# Entry
Amino acid sequence: MRWLVVLGLAAALAVLAGAIGLQLSKSSSTSAAAPPSSARSPGASAPAGARDPSRGAVGEADGVVPDGVTVFDDTVPAVSRLDPDLLRALRQAAEAAADDGAEFHVNSGWRSPKYQEQLFRQAVAKYGSEDEAARWVATTATSPHVSGDAADIGESDAAAWLSEHGAVYGLCQIYKNEPWHYELRTGAADHGCPRMYADPTQDPRMQK
# Structure
């Protein structure tokens, strides 16, 4: 009789162990399947109302971009203060991309000098030196964002669409390490986009 009790306990323990193992397996697979969040450009990481204690807060008026902004949002200064020709090209491309299911969200566009300086100082703190920070964020004097001549386009499908079709609209990726950063090159429709720089430190415009 005792051996029956022992056998029953062993069977119950085996069932319990199997149930725990199944639950752990489900939990692990769920975590592994979670999609990564959309990448944002290093130069657009400051949230609305971000504050550098030594320099004061910056907000939308300085070019900080709220979530969900597209190239058609005229009420957002980061979009409305882009160079008119660049903005026109972006909107034409966005209309064509919509037919392929891609939407052009703007992670960063025009920026005030104050905002650009804050982003550069944050990059120095993050990367440890001005030289390394310059690979990702330009200074106020050299940034095409300050002049309204660059837009950082979010969402991987939009970036992929632009990499294939952007030249038709004069929209070119300028730096190999920044697949989100696009500028207008008017001759690209006829001659293709110029050769990309490895990073901004290779761009002669950044040597001022």
User: Anything to note?
Assistant: The chain has seven helices and six strands. The chain has two domains: 1-33, 48-207. The mean pLDDT is 82.
